[in-house]
Amino acid sequence: MKGEQMHSRQPVPAKPWRDRVNSLGYIQGGTEAQADLLRQVLVQLPCDGKESLEWRTPEGKSVSARCEDLCRRVLSAPGLAERSAGAQWQPSAYARQWLENRDNSFLAAHLHARVKFFGELLLAIGDQTKQVDLLEVAKEMYGLNWTSPSPVRDRTGWLRSLGMIELWGQRVVRTELGDTLLEALPLCPPESARGEGEEAAESDDDEEGPLTLFGDSLQLEQVDLKNRRALIGYIPRGNASDSRDGDSTLTATAALRRLVALLGDGAALEEFSELCGSEFGISKTSFTTMMHALRHTGLIEQTSFNHFAPSEDAHRLVDQGNERLLAAYLHARYLFFGEILCHLSKPATTSALVTLAKETYGYAQASNGEIRLRLAFLQDAGLVERVDWQRFRVTAAGRSFVKNLTLQLPVEAEPEETDLAGPQNASPSSAPEAVIAQLRQYGNVGTDSREFEEAVGRAFAFLGFQAEHLGGSGRTDVLGIAQLATKDRYRIIVDAKSSGNGQVAESSVKFDALRDHKRKHKADHVVVVAPEFAPRLKNWAVENEVILLRIEDLATVLDRHSRNPMPLTELRDSFSHIDTFSDDLAERYQALERRSLLVRRIIDLAFQEAVDEDPIDDGYISVENIIYALRKEFTPRPSREEVDELIAFLSSPVVAALETTKGRHKLIDSPRNVALRLAGFGGTVATG
After folding, report:
1. Which of 389, 541, 351 is nearest to 23 (CA)?
2. How far apart are CA 105 and CA 101, in angstroms?
3. Under DSSP, is residue 99 helix (H, G, I), strand (E, B) or coil?
4. Poorest-confidence range of 77-81, 283-287, 368-372?
5. Total-model pTM
């Protein structure tokens, strides 16, 4: 008997709920034939991704699909197929076992071990259960954010094909084989799946008293906590993988460990760049961004001209086993780090933590990416655990750990005051708070689609497009036109998808319709804006040349754009990098922010020289002295050409900030007047 075969084998260890996948794909050819269709596919592997796989439906119809598409979209998530060392697709180990033993209970147990709500669905079947009832159980009892019955139908289809259930009209009925399987499966309790009711005992290794770091107490003052750095920045993590938690091969801590190891006892900048390019596959531009982040961690330092080495404590901080020491160190350097632990007694999403950071701690630059990176380090230290792909909670160790940290006290989020009397005044532009608030308000409701579409239109208008809200059947939601010279002009269409549960389902993004809209509106690029996207949509979007843009990422873009607006021509270049759109955009904004910071520092230096009681040369400062001062603050060091360009800008009659005489420069107006003059130009030029 097949049930006896199941009991004769060792029970299949189920992955923790948070590590199981949401997706269980469907092989075209019939709901009740999935197991047979899978067998037909697996016997054709190994296979190159570009080749075609063919199979026959129970009715004798021939169906085919590209190997790469079928294996990646349908078979890889539940672990039925995997890439070999030679980059071919091959059956997984347990798929090969199933081909040999032909035991459907064996395959069902392995699917349960890797897919959420598989065996649990069997348990949920009662006397009069329908598929719609199972959807409600998945949502209400197991906390799954499913908005359509498709995930349930996928699972019942596989279970029917494996002989575990039957459909009697609309009723779902467990078979004898299904009953036998259910007895053998280790099931996840609903409260555990929801991330509730698992209060672990306090850790036995509680720290006594204040944490210390190499002899220095970490009992920081509130002023120190408020002055911590806002951005950790870009830490390369290797090639992308199926891990929802960071989309990378290495964990955040392992990535830092590898970077410190690559640097060894020290290396020239060019040599380190080549090593990082080989190890992580990053470009020179990304390397520059990484170096900026890495230097600010304090883990590496410049030892001579274009030569860097790990800091004195770097190796100890990143050593395996010292993950909590690294977490304490990062807490002392970066805003809203250890404070996260106080707000995860109940599972929370990254987006919720971003809102909390801004509203409770005044951390205006908080973004999903920065919070995810902090969570990654806390996870590595065992202080936080992932409940599912979007929610996190504190562990018992985390609750003990945070008791020994000095935490920033909550503050009311207020606009930063500007010092108009000195060189530190902020940009005259204000962030588009109203647009961002509307995106968040309407994008997460699910019913106010028109209001959300209009908010998205206002967002792209803020970026410089002539944006028109269209909407309606057969039309895109927003049409954006970059009003430039004929050869530079381009058009984008934007589809706005609101969602009441925070995530847009796979079925909600219609790529065929988007292609039609693109053709109809003669658009060059397609963008979909939503709170969050189902995992598989990312790959599908790349294949269909569609950019997926989350609300929080768009909010970050608007905020950065308000201070350092990006030209429409550069935005066009970013739209062309579909698979790396967000990273490319971030790098471009970082370059613009660097330029603004350089301008500010040049004015600072000129101001300091001008007001010095004992100026070296009548308040003049040379380019060489400016570059010498800047080299300690910027990585990479500003070039002479870069500094000359900015000085020429500040010395122009229009800006009138500096006076240039024989290669020396002197401040000729107050920084306040310079800021007002530039703001005045902006107000005059602005047309809407």
Report:
1. 389
2. 10
3. helix
4. 283-287
5. 0.45
Q: Torsion angle, CA of 100/103/104/105, rounded to 10 degrees?
A: -130
Query: How big is the CA angle at 558 (ends 555 and 564), to the nearest 5 degrees?
Result: 140
d(CA 603, CA 170): 74
The Cα–Cα gap between 633 and 365 comes to 20
CATH topology of domain 433-561: Restriction Endonuclease (3.40.91)
Contact 182, 175 (CB under 8 A): no
Q: What is the pLDDT of residues 429-449, one digit of tens each?
A: 334 788 988 898 888 876 668
CATH 3.40.91.70 maps onto the chain at: 433-561
Tens of pLDDT, residue by residue over 451-502, are 899 999 999 999 999 999 988 777 899 999 999 998 899 999 999 999 877 7
Strands in 117-170 per DSSP E: 165-168
Q: Which residues pair with 167 in a beta bridge?
A: 172
Query: Which CATH class name applies to 590-685?
Result: mainly alpha
Alpha carbon distances (Å) from 19 to 389, 400, 437, 538 = 8, 25, 33, 19
What's the rounded Cα separation, in Å, for the pair 534 and 540?
Answer: 11
DSSP state letter for 349: E
Cβ–Cβ < 8 Å for 478, 491: no
**Distance of alpha carbon 468 from alpha carbon 70, whole angstroms:** 38
